[in-house]
Amino acid sequence: MAVATRDWNALARRSRYIRQFQNAVLISFLTVISIPVVLPFFWVLTISFSARTGGVESAVLWRACGVLVPAVIAYVVAHLTLKSVRRRLFAAAALTLLAMIALTVTVGNDLHLNNYRFLVNPNLVEDLRGAATAGGQFPWVWEAFFNSLAVAASSTLFKVSIATCCGYYISRYNFLGRSAYLQSLLILEVFHPWMLTIPIFLVIFWIGLLNTLAGPILVLTVIDLPFFIFIMKGFFDAVPWDVEMSAMTDGASRRQAFWHVVLPQVRSGIIAISVLGFIRGWEEYVFVTALRTGNSYWVMSTYLYYVADDVMGVDYGLVAAVSVFYMMPSLLLYMFLQRYLTQLTLGGIKG
Questions:
Q1: Please, which residues bridge with residue 52 across strands?
Q2: What is the Cα–Cα distance from 302 to 290, expressed in whole angstroms?
Q3: Would the pLDDT of 28 be above 80?
């Protein structure tokens, strides 16, 4: 019996070591392939805090990235290996403190906040060199920010509401023309929406929504709906009909069963299409530009484009700072909702 016990213990230790080795290899592989992806983002961040009117020093970029990239990679490894939330927070705080100290030592003299002057200066007609930027027609960045927020949030609300109702109806009801409707949704996904720019412009013009934010909101909602309807249909298909039937057997109406029983089961799908819809609306450039004439309204994508279109030469620090500010809402949204996006489940019965 003692020999058998020692053999089982040795087998358990061997399996544990193999699993740890496999996890280490996987983490190392993902780390190596992620460096070329995240490095440009750190460059943009570094340029936004270090570039001056004379240009950008490459030595500053490499020194800063030599601190930031290892710090982020170390945090990812700690987040994947540490199970305790308290230990993860401690690791994040420690790495942040070490990174700040290292940045202060290596590039502290080159850091400044002048490139973020657009956040507090409502008039960017003249930059620090006294040169007119993009013809001096800039609004305050917060005007473009809230316009982009209105477009992204409103279109997301419409997409999620309509896609959820349509996905449920298609999943649960066998109506006349159901197959043809699904096939038409697939056909709509074949054509790229940019091919329809001119017809969409004419339709928006005829209904009187040209030069208004309602035009891009309506267009973005219609364009993304077929894909989102298919996503929600898949989530509703994964919810067993018995769950809904049990609720109605207990006295719930169809609407109550949908709202209190079925809808919580597809929460992951709703969150997924909400994030996708918001990012799609936030980064939109083609239709928010095509459906306006002149400077009737500004959004962040057009603001960034014209910041880079300086008639006196590109101010790389200002462009990088606007880019960082432009990326923050999408990044924060993903950080707060990543646990729902990485743990998608399709339906099921709890308990």
A1: 55
A2: 11
A3: no
What single letter denotes the amino acid at residue 331? L
Cα–Cα nearest to 69, from 47, 90, 45:
45
Domain with CATH 1.10.3720.10 in the chain: 141-341
Question: Residue 171 and residue 238: Cα distance in Å, rounded?
Answer: 9
More confident call, 166 vs 88? 166
In this structure, are residues 175 and 241 in contact, taking their beta carbons and an 8 Å threshold? no
Q: 218: which DSSP letter?
A: H
CA distance 255 to 244: 10
**Structure token digits, residue 289:** 């530009």
Q: For residue 219, which of 230, 204, 206 has the smallest C-alpha distance?
A: 204
Whose structure tokens read 């780390």?
31
Contact 111, 266 (CB under 8 A): no
Q: What is the pLDDT of residue 311?
A: 54
Please check whether residue 311 is in contact with residue 134, taking contact to mean a CB–CB distance below 8 angstroms.
Answer: yes
Query: Quick check: 67 and 24 in contact, CB under 8 A?
Result: no
What is the chain's Cα-based Rg? 26
DSSP state of 55: B
Helices (DSSP H) in the chain: which residue ranges?
A: 2-50, 58-81, 85-107, 141-172, 178-190, 197-206, 214-237, 241-249, 254-257, 263-265, 267-282, 286-290, 300-308, 316-341
The alpha carbon of 15 is separated from its chain's Cα centroid by a whole number of angstroms, namely 38
Q: Does domain 141-341 fall into CATH 1.10.1760.20?
A: no
Share of the chain above pLDDT 90, in %: 13
pTM above 0.85, yes or no: no
